[in-house]
Automatic annotation (TrEMBL):
BP GO annotations: fatty acid biosynthetic process
Superkingdom of this protein's organism: Eukaryota
Alphabetically ordered keywords of this record: Acyltransferase, Fatty acid biosynthesis, Fatty acid metabolism, Lipid biosynthesis, Lipid metabolism, Transferase
Enzyme Commission (EC) number: 2.3.1.41
Organism: Aquilegia coerulea
The protein's name in its UniProt record: 3-oxoacyl-[acyl-carrier-protein] synthase, mitochondrial
Annotated Ketosynthase family 3 (KS3) domain residues: 45-478
InterPro entries, per database record: 3-oxoacyl-ACP_synth-2, Beta-ketoacyl_synthase, Ketoacyl_synth_AS, Ketoacyl_synth_C, Ketoacyl_synth_N, PKS_Beta-ketoAc_synthase_dom, Thiolase-like
Entry-linked SUPFAM superfamilies: Thiolase-like
Family: Belongs to the thiolase-like superfamily. Beta-ketoacyl-ACP synthases family.
Keyword Cytoplasm in record: no
Length: 480
């Protein structure tokens, strides 16, 4: 029996060898007679412009409301209440205990109501058809509505809908829905779980709902890169237009994470401000010596990006052009940037290189600076390294708008990109709030703005850096 098996296995090996040899010969022979494909068609790089804007921030609902309050030095940070924790399914004692355990008691929350400049929950959240929509998705729908009206882009023809895409990302989705679902497991009520639970928490559903509402059949994309999400969503969308995947893109970032578990998580990672619980308006202080962590914020920013000729042909208002998009990774630490700031330097340098502009031609930088002790100083040094004498001479205006809005996580990059575009469009660089004692990294003329400044801005940059060491810089220039 053993001898039979021995010969049989040898036979198998030799046949498989013959089979493989034959296959090798035939495929080799096959390749010799076939010409390689010619290279893919050359894609003429197309120019991308911004034709519509939509904003929802702790300063208010709408571009006009938010921008006015930002440049006037208003602040959207407030003391949180137990209701802000979104723990309605828990008993009062658990709610009080949880609230008491939070080391940070401030947040930047979108104002809700039916007045002008407030987010109307009855329209966007509470109607019957919105049961499948979590708050962060509602924020994206609200901002998209404003941006599309601004751009006057409501195509009815199928081919135009097929050439319009959506790129809206988020940072952490709907954590409060996850908490409520976990509570159902604890109480053995899992059969009561909503069939909409999964569609409510998936981050790409913001882009999904926008495309479904307007029938946009172009690229449907959702970046998730922590606090760089909004910037990556816009940069990726611009690439899709440049590459010819679409003519129009609805792009941005959204976040609604003011809830017990999100706050607790960031408190435990020691990322949040805790020194200013009794003076919330002073809690978010980018670049200031007294900074001790960021303030959790929420909101959304959405813009309409469009191929230049497409926008010109239909007579659209053009705010600015997307000139550069730079990306990099720190490859260093889960939450902290490397002290050499190399990641930020690479992202900014790559955006400038792609734009074809000289660093000296950039007039304003909207810094990522979140009000954390390490991050702000590293970014300031990186800006000085990229812009050199242009920065130290005082010719480069610099600010972080997070003093007014807190840190909007997945929405920050999009909201701040819109602030940067508005600075360009209106010729006003917005101020940095709560900058009383600037970090020692600043000196002489290299100093963030402490009051909004009217100036001629022809090119401006917006920085966004996220956990995991992901970095993105967007460079905008005045309308061609």
């Amino acid at each position: 029996m053993a001898i039979h098996f021995f010969f049989f296995s040898r036979f198998l090996r030799s046949s498989s060898y013959r089979f493989q040899s034959n296959r090798f010969i035939s495929t080799h022979h096959h390749h010799q007679h076939q010409q390689p494909f010619s290279p893919p068609p050359h894609i003429q790089q197309r120019r991308v412009v911004i034709t519509g804007l939509g904003l929802l921030t702790p300063l208010g609902c709408g571009v006009e409301t938010t921008w006015k309050k930002l440049v006037n030095g208003n602040c959207g940070v407030k003391e949180i209440s137990i209701n802000d924790l979104k723990m309605n399914s828990f008993d009062k004692e658990t709610q009080l205990y949880t609230f008491d355990q939070l080391s940070s008691k401030v947040a930047a929350i979108v104002p809700v109501g039916s007045n002008f400049g407030e987010f109307n929950e009855d329209i966007w959240l509470n109607s019957k058809e919105h049961r499948s929509i979590a708050r962060f998705i509602a924020y994206a729908l609200c901002c998209t509505d404003e941006a599309l009206r601004d751009a006057n882009w409501f195509p009815t023809e199928l081919d135009k809908k097929e050439r319009t895409g959506v790129s809206i990302g988020g940072g952490i989705g709907s954590i409060s829905d996850v908490v409520d679902a976990a509570q159902m497991i604890c109480e053995k009520r899992l059969r009561r779980l909503s069939p909409f639970f999964i569609p409510r928490i998936l981050i790409n559903m913001a882009a999904g709902h926008v495309s479904m509402k307007y029938g946009f059949k172009g690229p449907n994309h959702a970046a998730v890169t922590a606090c760089a999400t909004g910037a990556h969503s816009i940069g990726d969308a611009a690439r899709m237009i440049q590459f010819g995947d679409s003519d129009v893109m609805v792009a941005g970032g959204t976040e609604s994470s003011i809830d017990a578990l999100s706050l607790a998580g960031f408190c435990r990672s020691r990322a949040l401000s805790t020194k200013y619980n009794s003076t919330p308006l002073e809690a978010s202080r980018p670049f200031d010596c007294g900074r001790d962590g960021f303030v959790m914020g929420e909101g959304c920013g959405v813009m309409v990006l469009e191929e230049l000729e497409h926008a010109q042909e239909r007579g659209a208002k053009i705010y600015a052009e997307v000139r550069g998009y730079g990306m990099s990774g720190d490859a260093h630490h889960i939450t902290q940037p490397h002290t050499d700031g190399r990641g930020a330097i690479l992202a900014m340098s790559r955006a400038i290189k792609q734009s074809g502009l000289h660093p000296d031609q950039v007039n304003y930088v909207n810094a990522h600076a979140t009000s954390t002790p390490l991050g702000d100083a590293v970014e300031a040094n990186a800006i000085k390294s990229v812009f050199c004498e242009h920065a130290t001479s005082g010719a480069l205006a610099l600010s972080s708008t997070k003093g007014a809005t807190g840190h909007l996580l997945g929405a920050a990059g999009a909201v701040e990109a819109i602030f940067t575009i508005l600075a360009l469009y209106h010729g006003i660089a917005p101020l940095t709030l709560n900058l009383n004692r600037p970090d020692p990294v600043f000196h002489d003329n290299f100093m963030p703005l402490t009051t909004s400044k009217e100036m001629n801005i022809r090119a401006a940059m917006s920085n966004s850096f996220g956990f995991g060491g992901t970095n993105a810089s967007l460079l905008f220039a005045s309308a061609p």
